[in-house]
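#dry-run=false #mode=assembly
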Amino acid sequence: MFKAIVNKLNPLQLSCSFHTTACLNEVRLLTRLRVVDNSEIGKRAMSEGKPPRVICVYNKQRVGYIGDRVLVAIKGQKKKGILVGLKQTQKVKVPKFDSNNVVLIDDNGTPLGNRIHVPIPTILRTILKERTHAKGADYTKLLAIATKFV
Amino acid sequence: MSLAIRRTTELIGAAKWFLRRDSRVLSTLPEKVEEPPAELTSKRYRRRFFQNEAILETRHAYPEFLPDPNPNWRNSLREKLERADMLERRSQIDIPEFYVGSVLAVTISDPHAQSKTNRFVGICIERKGCGLRAEFTLRNVVDHQGLEVRYDLYDPTIQSIQVLRLEKRLDDKLFYLRDALPEYSTFSFDMDPEILPEGTPIPVNPVQVKLKPRPWLERWERQELKGVSNIEEHLKEKDRVRRELRKTPWEKYDLMKQYRKTIPIEDQSKIWAEVHNQLQQLQMARKKSARKRTFTTPKTQLG
Amino acid sequence: MNQADVSKLVSKLRIRVPAEPRKLRNIKGPEGRIDKLRKTVTGLIKYERIELNSNRGQEARQYAERLISEAIRHGDCHKPTMDIADYWLLEKELIHKLFKVLVPRFQDSNTCYTRLLNAPRIIHSRNPDKVILELKGNPYPVLGSNKMNNRFLIQNVLLDAAKYDYRQAKYAEFAKKIVNKEEKIDTTETEAPSIEKQQSDDKLTQS
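#status=ok
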């Protein structure tokens, strides 16, 4: 089919050089994210139209899934964040968002803002509890500032 | 003892013989069975045909009872078992009739939530899969954030499925709501169920949504959508040319392509004959319970 | 797992339908493929028996079967069916043939409407396999009636001749034996009965 159309467009060239696979919407290196908390730096970055970019995903696959920790470049600074909503196709009963959402945290897991203004998937509660260790960072503080769960 | 038994059996045998003979005498069937007149057969045939048609109409409401049209993935035993399981599940919870475009409220038991239940309201934008793997997707906009949740229709964790607004839209899939303005897919969580009067056909909502400016997730202009009003505004000349090139007017006439997508009538009527009665009974039971039920507004639940 | 399309109802084909359609090689892609098949289906409806390459014949058969089954199911007063017939039959007088001739012919049949036979293949040739596609109930002589009980089949003719020869040989042997015996037992008797017997034997063999 595509070959036929390419032939129509350009009868001399008989191969189709662009790929036609649907995109996966994965969070990878240099993906733009949306900051959804009310931290000062996040708000300014979003209002200026320069959303943060992923410069590292802290897992083995280097593809961010829900609840994963990422390092983002935001307004010339490096900040850590937690992915709280993904565009990618999710498992059954896990919500799929229209944007890739991130909540900025510091090294101890404390959120930089004090309110999240979009809904948060409930599965994050379990994931973040699992990720939290007694002596390491405490990510469950993020759950406390959420306004709504879906 | 044995003698007695033998005598009784003899007696029974004689009685049987007599009965058979008697009945044969009484029935007085002619040797040749007269063929019924042509009109009668055609009438009977027509009645059966209409009954069959009525049974076949169930396919719109319960499409997941039909198996996969791809013959490579067919397995008659598995399909039969799955149908039995689906009916079993339907007898446990009330899975109402709904279509793409209906607004649903789904309550699931969620181990991650604080209240251990999770309620989500949204418009059904897609139904897919067959058998026990049937799925549907709900879409809603909460706090200006678009959300989509995919549910298995026969998931055992589903506590209830409630139809808040029963209607159809102009298209079979409503993926264009992702690129439409958010008000078209915003539904409040404390929406009241709208009850249709009994016996009315399913209304088709003729609303045409407005799309946001490009970039879009898909090339909507090539999909011949009826439910989008302002698609031409956002197109350039290049897109129109490409759309013309991509058009496949012959596919409408590709008889085998249609055939490979559907289940033929003969196979369908077998399946519907198997499940139709039970589905009908479930529907009657639902109607009865709906009359009894006192109306209560559902409360909003936070996580 | 796909959901079956419920918007249209189709009657079941009486032939085996492969899961995937065959690709017929064409520079114009799927459009050209359908055009090719349209020509073939038109030819089939017109001539009722055509010879084709195997791939194209097998694919065209499915489309012809579908066209006839649609015509039988909906009749000629159904607008979409008329459109389909109009698209598939390039010569417009064939639409009348489809609804007036073929529909009554196949209305009460409970088998498929077409027959597909392999054409004889030239050994060591590089030509593609040929098939013969025909509508059932056509006026031409029957193809491929190589029934084993046909009297004029060459194998059966040869076998019959061999049987006849064998029988003749056996009868001659018997006759000789009997003659010898009688000569031994009674030399005084005349040879008339034995000759009679031989004659009767001959009659038997002739019959």
